[in-house]
Amino acid sequence: MTAQANQAQTRPADGQRPTHPLPTDRITLTGLRVRGRHGVLAAERELGQEFVIDVTLWLDTAPAAAADDVTLTVHYGELAEALAGIVAGEPVDLLETLAARLADACLADVRVGRAEVTVHKPAAPIPLPFGDVAVTIVRDRP
Fold first, then answer.
1. What pLDDT was estimated at residue 114?
2. What pLDDT is attached to residue 142?
């Protein structure tokens, strides 16, 4: 791997450098649909709406692959359940706050070096035609 590629691989989104290189393996879960009550408007809290979640986790999957053992990797079914519980749980005003909570849940597994989380709000209260509103964050293990 070139020095430039290695540098890009280890540079977190916030500009701080992690102390270890990130694994190149990824687990991706896209299109998780969950009803939640997030938003700044009272009607959003009262009526709720569907949110769509995409996550990508960077981790070393080699131990799980070598042993063919799900306990040595992130179980994406359990991950989906945990993320759905957060989205369906306590309401927050901002998508940024919700995305941060989801990223924290992803990083709770010590095998995960980086998490990218996108929260889509396809029914956001915007009085113009639009396709989607989304917030994407990237967080690295401290």
1. 98
2. 82
User: What angle do the packed helices 95-107 and 76-88 form, to 10 degrees?
Assistant: 150
Q: Which of 38, 120, 121, 139 is catalytic?
A: 121
Terminal CA-to-CA distance of the chain, rounded, Å? 24
Residue the block writes with tokens 């293990």: 141
Its pTM stands at 0.84
DSSP string covering 33-62, please?
EEEE--SSSHHHHHH-EEEEEEEEEE---H
**Parallel, antiparallel, or unpaired: how do β-strands 114-120 and 134-140 relate?**
antiparallel
Question: Token pair of 75, please?
Answer: 């179980």
Q: What is the pLDDT of residue 16?
A: 52
Domain locations along the chain: 23-140
The model's pLDDT over 6-30, given as tens digits with 9 standing for 90+, comes to: 344 444 445 554 556 888 999 999 9
Question: What is the assigned CATH class of domain 23-140?
Answer: alpha beta
Give catalytic status of residue 121 as yes or no: yes
